[in-house]
Amino acid sequence: MDETYRLNKDVIRKEAFPISLIVVSYLLGLFIYRKLPFFVPTSWDLEGHINAYLPKSIAITFLPTAALAFLLFLLLLPYIDPLRKNYARFIDTYAVIINMFIALICLSQIVMLIVIVTGLNTLIGTSANIFVALVYLVTGNFFPRIRQNWFIGVGTPWTMISEEIWKKTQRLAGFLLFLLGMVCSLSIFIKYLQSVLLSVDWALVILVISSFYSFFLYLKMRETSNGISFDRKADILKSLAFTIVHIPYWIFML
Asked: Closest Cα partner for 144 from 107, 170, 116, 179?
């Protein structure tokens, strides 16, 4: 039985929620289009101060269009993954990750339109904290279920050569991301935590810790297993490529 990832009805069905959000984002923008001035605010700081404007035609369409393009990209991404067959092993988790990212973009659009119409700029800071917390909580919860692939997760030379190292590394990263999400949730009510979160890029810290942890596991396993090593230059180059192509995912997370 061929269990390789394929873009079929079952996969599309799992994306019903983000597709619906994209449609709602477009419709909401069109509904209020005539009520908007030519230039509308599109960027705020965490305190609700406006720092950028765009023409309304761009403001109401940019994020939904970006969400649609991103959705198509993520659905097609497994086709260029050398480990495409592994997606069938975590297809539900992959669907949740896609749902989360698309929902984040669309909900940002909806909140932006509400703020534009109502002038409640304080919604920006609160909603931003909530969205960030949800991203880390959801990602952290599902990270341990991700199987080896070339694009999502903590990709290092050492997680590439061993599925056991991969699993343990994602488990640690998931725990730390979930913990970060809990702190972000508390920061909504405890303002002091916001300054702590802004003082350091904690997602980057988690990536560094997880990467060093994967190297530690590699050294530990190499002492007890003859099969864990880089035997050829091609293996080293491949492992470096494996690491590099995981960077865009973490740039988005950061």
From this structure: 170
